[in-house]
Amino acid sequence: MPLHPLKRVEDRLRDVAQLVDYGLYLVFNPFKFKRFPTKIKRILVVETLQLGDLLVATPVFRALKQHYKSAAIDVLVQPPASQLLEGNTSINTVIPFTSFADVLSHLRENKYDLGILLHPASLQMSWLLFRAGVQYRVGATKAGFLSGKGFFLHKKIKPTLKMQHKIQDNLDVLRALPILVKDASLELPVHKKAAAVVATFMKHFKSKTIILHTSSKHKSHHWMPERFARLADILVHKYKATIFFTGTKEDHHHVHYIISQMRQPHKAHNLAGRTTLPQLIALVDAVDLVVTIDTSMTHIASARKTPVVVLFGPTMPAFWGPSSKNSRYLWKDDVCVGCRRSFCIYGKNYICMRFIYESDVLAKIAEVFP
Q1: Which of 117, 188, 212, 309 is the most core-located residue (most Cβ within 10 A)?
Q2: pTM above 0.90?
């Protein structure tokens, strides 16, 4: 898929920043001479960004466990994301990043042989691993132009200049060790208690069930609420479907407005803020189809292999698209630059999302949900 010329310039600047940093590491970094440990008993992986970032890191955990079968693998995450890893058999302990001081004390006690820094590759995070006495520190995944690159690392990953999914960016960190990666699929267990709650809820619906996930913390990712309402009505009519609108409690009023614009609002249910994260995952596993804007819902549906259609605007599917076989995405890359910003930096009133129409979405749905 062709990219706008301005987008190519920005990506080239990112590549230059990565190459310059890697060159400085090769010449000046004092930590690069340390040898890789002969025995790995305890591993720490750092991924402290958003839910979606953590989900696309799950193939890393599995590959590490397959390679170091007897090693304990711990993961440092933001507290809200810790529920995503409950039940993941590749992981021993999930450590919430509460504060630098608290986490530092905990990590020192564990005496890690290997630390893998995925996100963020900031000076603070690499300093944390250094202060914690992690014996060998490696990273980091591909970062932006101004993002930190992890100064206190023993091994930095040679930047790749090709466009590839963030899953592959993460796995490149392991390949540099080298560790053989056999499976790049996402992993997201369903909690038994959450599944039981959802199963009881779903008994009330005999028709097809479809999730519409309409909100993001980034305004630039939003699709027009009136179009979501029209899409919902069409799905109700075409598939005799029941619609579940999902989201956080902050999205409740936004979803309420969308439902108020429907001709058949009685066929829709506002579940925004009414499910826990484990229940949302179980719900995604139970429904027949998910239609979502670019959020972590993309990767939740991909991990559970539920048919999903994703609407992209400023972000690029090559990096963040759905990864399951029964998935499709929409991206009108010919109308704007794919700026990857949370607001419309060119003053075009979010033309990248406005050029997606209900008919476009329905065509993609037909490919995975006939």
Answers
A1: 117
A2: yes
